[in-house]
Amino acid sequence: MIKNYTKRNKRNVLFILLFGLLFITNSIVLATAVDRMAFCDLEGYPGKTIIFKITLEGTDPEEKSGFWYTHYKKVEGDSDRMDITSWVTIEPKDYTIKEGETKVFTVKINIPKDAESGLWGAISKGADKEGHSGERRTYVVFKDALGDGNVYSGLLIPISVNVLPNQDSWAPIINFIKKNIVTIILVLVIIILLIPFLRKKKTKRRRRK
Question: CB neighbours of 26 closer than 8 A, spacing ≥ 6?
């Protein structure tokens, strides 16, 4: 009887904890609402900037102070393409928001000039779809301070970019030169050194004739 009673108590405590966690989580999510939950499969060319807007709405009776930042979810075995946090900026970074108030933020994604074509920030297309959270790597995140400011609620918004082949027809040649610059310089030096030798040889042939 004592063992059964103990087991029941443990189950009740566990249920209360889970219910409490669910209640807290729901309260946190409702503190501030966002108009979009993901920005995946965006498209852009190397060296270009993708710009879009994101809106927050205050849903809590108390005024909230918050801020934006970028986050990379590191997973062993990922390639360098997964972390594009350095590409992303959010303006303004800090904010305060009241109930019923909306604030618009500008998100800029600066694609590096040397970025190779293909998907960046996620391991596959459609990472924003339900059940594909494991494919997401780069996020923008907003956080609100709760109560005295020592506790925060927040939401991770995944971002991925499909870098398109460069529009510049000279891009493949430029990339080849960059990757093989040492070899190219050596070949040019050899050619320059050979020119006087070839001229002398040509002059000698003329004299013999």
Answer: none
